Amino acid sequence: MITQEQIDFYHENGYLLVKGLFNSEEVEAMRTATDAIIDRAAKSKFDRSDTWQGDYLPPEQLKKLVLKGFHDVHYHDAVFTRALCHPNMAAVLSRLIGPNVQVHHSKMLVKPPEKGAAFPMHQDYPYFPHANHSMIAASIHLDDSDMENGCLCVIPGTHKNGPMPHVGAHYLDHKEYPISLGTPCPASAGDVLFFNYLTIHGSDVNRSSRPRRNVLVQYRDPEDLPTEEVHVNWGQGLMVCGHNPIFKEYKGAH
Length: 254
Hints:
By secondary structure, this protein is α+β, with helices and mostly antiparallel strands. The chain contains five helices and ten strands; from the N terminus they run αβααααβββββββββ. It has helices spanning 4-13, 24-42, 59-62, 78-84, 87-96; strands at 15-18, 101-111, 119-122, 136-141, 152-154, 183-184, 192-196, 201-203, 212-220, 239-241. The strands form two sheets. The chain has a six-stranded antiparallel β-sheet with strand order 1-7-4-9-2-10. The longest helix has 19 residues, at 24-42. This is Phytanoyl-CoA dioxygenase family protein. GO terms for molecular function: dioxygenase activity.
């Protein structure tokens, strides 16, 4: 699925865009499932907006923005279980992480048209720190994504910096790390952007008339243990490639 040149690019830059990992039928099935989850959530007591709070945008602008960020989407629809274990996904992950690959969690990130919230620049590390930093995010694009509708931007090579001090635990100082500092990663529906959880990344507001629907799955080497018991999810630990060398009894967190 990927070449040695692409693998080298990932290790040097901390990210890799893989084109056409999912076909159009698979993308359409995930779009339908995503929209249905939002609809079901809207009819429940669990609906909310996950817009990041902070001083990275003026307060009057921030309160107008919306982000749907529901976790563990593979427990809401089987289409996502198939996606996160897809042979193409496994083929890439086994070259970037190693022969043994485990799911940490999944979530959907939906920026609605014209008011889709921004993500200030940050590392994912503070949310779920691990000892060996094998954690990789796979951002599955369900829509064509560009700067107008808030595509992801990364700062190449920053995975080599190690963990960096964040404002609180959430994002980097926006004056020092504005989104404009990042390299835009425009993508087409069906493409997947892989990036290390130490790679600085973020995205701007969706100012377009188009949605920006992404599903993001975090993967790790099962021998890369968490340094803090945070962000524990029910069903965490599904094996996508290889086996888990550490035998343990798995029990639900909820």
